[in-house]
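Worked problem 6 (solution included).
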Amino acid sequence: MRTILRQIILGIFLSVAVSSVVSAQQLNMGDILPQDTNVRVGKLDNGMGYYLRHNAKSTGLADFYIVYDVGSVQEEDSQNGLAHFLEHMMFNGTKHFPDDSMILWLESIGMQFGTNLNAATGMEMTYYQLTQVPLKRESIVDSMLLILHDWSGYLALEDKKIDKERGVIIEELRQRNNAQFRVGNKAAIPVFGDTRYAHRNMLGTEEFLRTFDSQMLRDFYKCWYRPDLQAVVIVGDFDVNEMEAKLKKVMADIPVAQNPKAKEVIRIPDNVAPVVTVITDPEQQTCNANFYIRRAAVPKELNNRVGATYMNMMINIAAAMMNTRFGELAQQEGCPFASAHLQNVPLTNTCDALELQVVARGDAIAEAFTSAYGELERVRRFGFTEEELEQVRTGILRGGKYAYETAGDRENGMLVWECINHYVKNTPLMSPQHKWAVTQLMLMKQVTLQEVNELVRQLISLANNVLVISAPEKAKRVLPETEILENFFSWVRTVEMEPYQTEKIDRPLLSEEIISGRIIKTKKGKYGSTVWMLENGIRVVVLPTTDSPYQIVMNGQASGGLSMIPTEDYYSVSMLAQVVSASGVGDFTAEQLRKVLGSKVVNIQPTINRFSTDINGSAAKGDVETMLQLTYLYFTRPNFDRGRLDMIIEANRINLENSVNSPDFVMTQMVNKITYGDQQRTRIPDEQILAGIDCGKISSWYRNLFTDAAGNYTFYFVGDIDMETFKPLVEKYIGGLPAGKQQLGWKDDGVRVLPGVKEERQEIRMETARSMVSIGYSGGMDYTQQNMMTMGMLSACLQSRYNQIIREEKGGSYGVSVNGTLSRQPIGTYDLKVTFQTNPDMVEELVRVVKDELFQIADKGPDPEDLNKHLEYWRKMETQNARNVQTRLILLQTYYTWGEDWDVDYNKLLNSITVEKVQELARKIMADGNLKEVVVNPTTMVTR
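Solution. The predicted structure is:
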């Protein structure tokens, strides 16, 4: 792979100097790109790195991370699973936070375990995070730094805590041991060679997790989790100088590692002949091909150079052009692949790859891969065209400009990851100004079609090829022999083929003349909005806000939706949004439309919901007219391609066929059946329903709900809106819509949850012995803001209790999900659902826990401390949500649809959610007595 590295990269790094708008000096390919001066980057005396950045976007909040340049690959063969196990132990006692005191204290200040307090372990990198930390007082900052200090090298790692956590991680392994996990493990040796990477599954084995000696974990922690392999990243609303001083003081007592063990550099071995592996699994649902062309990665020390960025840009441009071709081909009748996608991936620190992902239509994976790979060969021979390059170049420039314009609107998390990637991979850490300048320079002055095509010819090599075919076990009989596939790659180079024919589109999106409508009435609206009534009957509510600069969101909504559709047409019309999106609009197919919109930051999607039809959109400020033009076309000139509908139906049919025996599908089917019985509108589509889908019905009902009913709609626009320039655009494109004669309004569709108590148990064949449990409560309830919040608090309190008892005390499940919701239509109802997976031997015990904890809250009320910590979290989040354009949009919709003002004193509303209120709700749920309990258990377990 080093030969390929020299061929592809060294020429780029040694190329002649290019002019730069970044500075007045010449910028060579070997130059280091300028670093963002808004990020304070440093290293402590003990070797620990740090990145500090002020960001005022999230007022009063900050994110605290500690990143380790180590992961599962540091494990010896006898230690598989230790790095991930350590991740769990970070929350089980440290020097200054014994036992569970860390979690309890963090929750008391409004942080949520799993949301704000979490971690992740990878093959080569690990991180632990404290996000959305409320900086209400200085002592909180001190405590956060002390937590990072303890994570750095002062975990308690007590035997009793280790033993207690074993069960939780075993349940995590049980939950994650699905078809994708098993296929990935089997594919590891072909992809990574017989190296450590191929023998690390992150989680380990159940036997190892039950039996490893605790001292092994402590030794692993001491060896690898040390300051010279760590960096602290803190981004948020704070003074950088003050934070740096505090960080240096808190971390000063962490000693320099003595005789540190060096990280082994592991290189993936080359292979001259293609490596082909065919893997089947009974629970796999699609036939897939993952094809890799591996190459040596750019050395870490060069990743922040101009040359590395330039090469990555050219590869990404080539992948984007290739994926446009794949998208066009996938929509053609007879194409054997449902999707094909090319991407540049970092397999390891030392190995990158071009990865071609192919999903077949049905089980024709040989034909699907042959077709997709053939397109790679076509590109290798003939290259791309100037039209293709220009389309991608224009799109990247538009996206880059938008990213530059909205750089001040970035959340802490996005900025954190720029720092993490710089620490772990040495990728550029540029300011938005420099990033935009470099993008323009490279795309406008440097990247040429000849260079891209030459790079592609070198990358699409016959060396270091790996092909992994994965499929359902029942498709095994039709899968190609590996020997045939091994010879395929050299054979395809002898096949005659013609250059790809691209279509140049130079016609405007909307060419027809539109007669503008008039605004007949203007009035001051709610929350600072303006309301325009158009002469065609459409109401437009506009709310300018600086919350998200250069961004505008749109929603057009009318009452009715699927509730208006006769049952015999229900399933046809429910596919309306899919068909319209796949068919394009106006004079353009979907593929042509993507090309036309390639230079725009805009998105439009008509949808049909149970009680409404909507058209949702978003756009950069400079592309708002395009968004309105698309809206006009979707109302007046939608396309309905019967061929696209047939492909959608066939994809659904194949998915149904491959999913029907999967545990998740069986669970969904059982829950649906026990909840709704045989009500026609709640059936999961089967072969009979799919065969009855009628394109004519879809087209006819679309006209009724959109084209001939525009006058029923209210449009909402929220964002960075200049009213003076926006008003004539609304008059033209929204005011120019024909009012239509259809009257829309929602109807009671008669769908109800079945009353009473119903229990269902079913056994099915599974590859992993796991039981899936769903417990649902339902009943009538008024849809009010306070009721919604009370239900949210009950759900949160139950979640805490289940995590404490089922996960922590009993080690019975990796996690329990609690979801409480309210519905307004057709009648006010609530739904409280608890789901989890567990060891089959523990099902009945844990089901009792679920029911008992709800009974305890109904009997005695929730734990006041539990309730208070969740209220504190909601108070913290409200300060951010209030400034969100989506929140403002929802407030407007609620007011103008239902006449309800939900912009109330939030603290006052939260203070009304008392122990007694939550207890009252729990009592109501118990008294209603509508319980649906479903358990799917394994029968025969097969070891593979």
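Discussion: The chain is about 45% helix and 20% strand.
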